[in-house]
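Exam revision sheet. Question 4 asks you to relate a sequence to its structure. Input first:
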Amino acid sequence: MKRRIIKWTVAIFTILLLLVGLAYLLLQLPVVQNYIKDKVFETISEKYAADWRLDKIKLNLFDEITLEGIAFMDQKGDTLITADKLHIDIGLFSLLGKEIKLDAVELSNARLKIYEISEDEMNFSFLIPETTTKPVIDTPTNEKESAPWLFSLNNIKLDSSTISYVTSTQNILVYEDKLNISIDYFDLEKQEVVLNKITASGIKTQVEIAPSDEAGEPFSLPNLGWNISTQALEVTQTEVKYKSGETIIDVKDLGVSLKDLAYKNDSLDVVVNQIEANINDQIVLKNVEASLSLYKDVLFTQSLKVRTPNDQLDVGKLTFNINELELETNNLKGKIASQTLVELKPFLPENINLIPNQNLNFSSDYVVYRQSLVKGNKLEIDYGPALQLNATVEVRGSLNDFETAQIKATAQNLQVDLP
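Answer key, structure tokens:
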């Protein structure tokens, strides 16, 4: 009896192995793969009334999937998503524990096109299922059987991809040469992502916003509903072009190095190791360093350092309200070169004249700037023979009209010879 049980067990196990082997061999046949591919995409196309096509599918040892010639159209027949190649590496044995684990996702030469069809409809809206309210019925369930499937993702790599977003008021185009995202933890249910590192290079971004006479909505850091963090972010060889009416901002040679970035609810914390950029061929940032926090519409920084080829700025602590344009700093020290002052002349009061080739040096223990108040404690200003100041100064009233402004000052040294 015992020998018979062993014999049947071996026979069943052998049959199972043969079936698995046969299934694998069948799935390697192009005719079988194309049949499965055609049936799946035919069903999807009929369901969404949109043309979805795939040129080739390849399965490798059940844990790798390669898709080539991807073309997903929207219901207007226009491009929604296209890509030359999508490669997915699946952790096969994770499926035994009710987990879909993607070791790597690689996408090559992809294009995502999003555009507005009407005021309340985008070209991808047909993919969003309609929500319906159903009565909740309490039924006894087996906790083990009802446990949800988990999803995890370790690495994302994108090469030569483009995203376009067009509405009646916005036109945004983003191209990236290389993007790599290394993921430590991904929880879809808890909406939490912990990234190890993000590296990107060759990003080109164009943003065009239609000008409007209406006042824009106040700025506030949006609550995405996700907790997102990364240990490091490196961006190199990046360009950004922004246009809205007559306002044009052209940023070239942008490089960014960040660490310990955390985005939670409506707050952002990050350590800026370095930022370098060329802005409109007028301001060249050689380096920016700071510990930065942004909560809703208020920016906080510590140990801020800004360097250009000719200028420098150091701030111990800074608080800036973006909507109210209010500023407060501690331990402020800086130098503005004469070339930079010439560039800033259109933003200075009309009755202020500049001295050729004269730098402006300044420092203060504490500075407050509001719409009708400027205050500097232990303020030191050195603008050559035009102005030497060592004082505590408070200015109330319109800052564009010094004749009507109320000025209080306690000066240890004051020398004025304005041109």
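Marking note for examiners. The CA atoms of residues 91 and 101 lie 5 Å apart.
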